[in-house]
Amino acid sequence: MAHSTKAAVFEQVGCPLTLEELELESPRAGEVLVRLGASGVCHSDLHVIDGEWEVPVPLVLGHEGAGVVEAIGEGVRDVSVGNRVVLSWFYPCRRCRYCASGRGWACTGTRSSDCVLDDGTPPFRRASGESVYSYLTVGSFAGLTLVPEAGAIPVADEVPYEVGALIGCGVTTGVGAVVNNAEVPAGAATVVVGCGGVGLSVVMGAKLAGADPIVAVDLADEKLELARELGATHTVRADGDWVAQARSITGGGADFAFEAIGLVETVERLPDLLANGGTGVLVGLTATGVRASFDVLSFAESGKRLIGSNYGGSIPSVDFPRIAQLFLAGALPLDKLITHRIALEELEDAFAAMRRRERARSVIVY
What we know:
The chain is 27% helix and 27% strand. The protein is of the alpha/beta class.
């Protein structure tokens, strides 16, 4: 049985997304059909649109999604029809050595990066019969999507779709970078560079961990104001000698500094933000092939560390429900990240605002 849905399709760099009616088959063994309630608009989507990352085309973009299970295929056990789910953009195979050791974010058996289902087939198709790929096997810029069972994580029904969508990427990436990758202890001096959706999630994660002080750095006053609402104890505008200001607030350097933009200029300043023995965390993603440099001798002599964070080191089946419960308990005010609720037809405006580094998060509400 075929299902029809409106979707935003990416065809080539330099061209706007096209809104089309696409078809999906009913779920086969191990697959789940999800009716989307909301989708976040993330900078990773913009990387694709601007040609900074290579993807197969045509492609339904969007990878921050939440919705309700409409149908399941044979053998599906982890979700049932009617379940509210958050979609994971890096569904684990559950079989490789990384999955077996609790590092699903490093899975080598997933087909997520190929933008196809587990059997290698794209989930969408045009009326002509042409296959259409699904970005990171989520494709949340569509009213309906088809995902592997491991990519649909049940959460409490009380979690709004808009919040669930952000848990699917930006929130888990930011909070997880603090609690999973960096393991920030209470009282640690922390600096967060960049206050978009991910950076603000880092701020919330730092507050959750009990870090102090928490210094948020950005160029936009409205983002800095929101950072204070979400837990930053201090804010610094990223003009002038912002590194010196942040070092002064942290008493000579931070124990932890997070780069949440993905810019070479700010990545290269991470070591300068750190106290001796401090840890820099790369959370923001750059274009493919970008390289950065720093003073290696000084870095080594001061005993600093630099770590990468992929998906916040998360295990979605564990971390998504946990973050959802923290939201419901009031410990993570995730709804404050949403500055604009939009329709699918307003995507181009959302991406234009992102290029201007405006807004915290735009969310499509279906």
